[in-house]
């Protein structure tokens, strides 16, 4: 009986040790994990100029400007300035194109579109306010989404604009904040 007790004790001790070893090695990869990026930017403040447009999209400038400012503010690595004179860099964004292409047609009438693929294209320029040097110029950025015309094309496109602006603003923020 004593040998059986000792055997069970050593088996349970070995399994606890094995489980402990597995637990330690499983979580050792997380010991150096760090939230966010460790890259440091060469500037601390950014001015986002009001978005300009060369495309006919009503009310798009205000929506896109707000989304870009929000994306940069949410990152936390830079502060937003209210004037170019108060900032280290200035970001200018221009909407250059908005287009829609027929993606699918209605089964009963192929002349009527059921959905469109809409594309919003912008160019972004980042300028160092202290040296006047262009950090990047007219970098093309675009976003695409499908719009379904079940509730009407105009209403569907109006509802899609904030979504396209959010996609563009995320890409603009990455272009500005990625350490290159």
Please explain how this structure is put together.
InterPro entries: LPS_assembly_LptE. It comes from Horticoccus luteus. One of its GO terms (biological process) is Gram-negative-bacterium-type cell outer membrane assembly. This is Lipopolysaccharide assembly protein. Pfam families: LptE. By secondary structure, the protein is α/β, with parallel strands linked by helices. The protein has a single domain, classed as Double Stranded RNA Binding Domain (2-Layer Sandwich). 37% of the residues lie in helices and 32% in strands. The chain has helices spanning 2-27, 60-75, 153-177; strands at residues 45-48, 52-53, 79-81, 89-105, 113-128, 134-148. Strands 1, 2, 3, 4, 5 and 6 form a 6-stranded mixed sheet that branches. Helix 2 runs parallel beside helix 3 (153-177). The protein starts with a helix and ends with a helix. The model has no long low-confidence stretch (mean pLDDT 81).
The CATH C-level name is: Alpha Beta
Helix and strand succession?
Answer: HEEHEEEEH
The fraction of residues in strands falls at 25-35%
Average predicted local confidence, pLDDT: 81
Tally of separate helices: 3
CATH architecture identity? 2-Layer Sandwich
Provide the CATH topology: Double Stranded RNA Binding Domain
User: Given the C-alpha coordinates, what overall shape results?
Assistant: flat
Could you give me the name of the CATH homologous superfamily?
Lipoprotein like domain
Largest sheet: 6 strands, mixed
Helix vs. strand class: alpha/beta
Low-pLDDT stretches: none
How many structurally independent domains? 1
Give the oligomer, counting copies of the same chain as homo and different chains as hetero: single chain
| Terminal CA distance | 70 Å
Into which percent range does the helicity of residues fall?
25-40%
Radius of gyration, rounded?
Answer: 27 Å
Number of strands: 6
GO biological process, one term: Gram-negative-bacterium-type cell outer membrane assembly
Protein name: Lipopolysaccharide assembly protein
Organism: Horticoccus luteus
InterPro entries: LPS_assembly_LptE (IPR007485)
């Amino acid at each position: 009986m004593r040998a059986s007790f000792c055997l069970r004790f050593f088996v349970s001790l070995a399994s606890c040790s094995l489980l402990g070893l597995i637990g330690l090695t499983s979580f050792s990869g997380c010991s150096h994990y760090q939230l966010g990026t460790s890259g440091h930017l060469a500037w601390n403040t950014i001015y986002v100029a009001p978005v300009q447009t060369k495309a006919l999209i009503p009310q798009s400038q205000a929506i896109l400007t707000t989304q870009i400012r929000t994306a940069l503010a949410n990152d936390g690595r830079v502060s937003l300035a209210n004037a170019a004179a108060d900032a280290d860099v200035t970001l200018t964004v221009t909407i250059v194109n908005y287009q829609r292409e027929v993606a699918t047609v209605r089964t009963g009438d192929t002349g009527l579109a059921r959905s469109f693929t809409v594309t919003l294209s912008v160019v972004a320029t980042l300028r160092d306010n202290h040296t006047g040097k262009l950090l990047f110029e007219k970098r093309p950025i675009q976003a695409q989404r499908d719009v379904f015309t079940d509730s009407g094309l105009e209403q569907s496109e109006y509802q899609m604009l904030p979504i396209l602006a959010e996609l563009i603003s995320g890409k603009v923020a990455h272009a500005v904040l990625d350490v290159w």
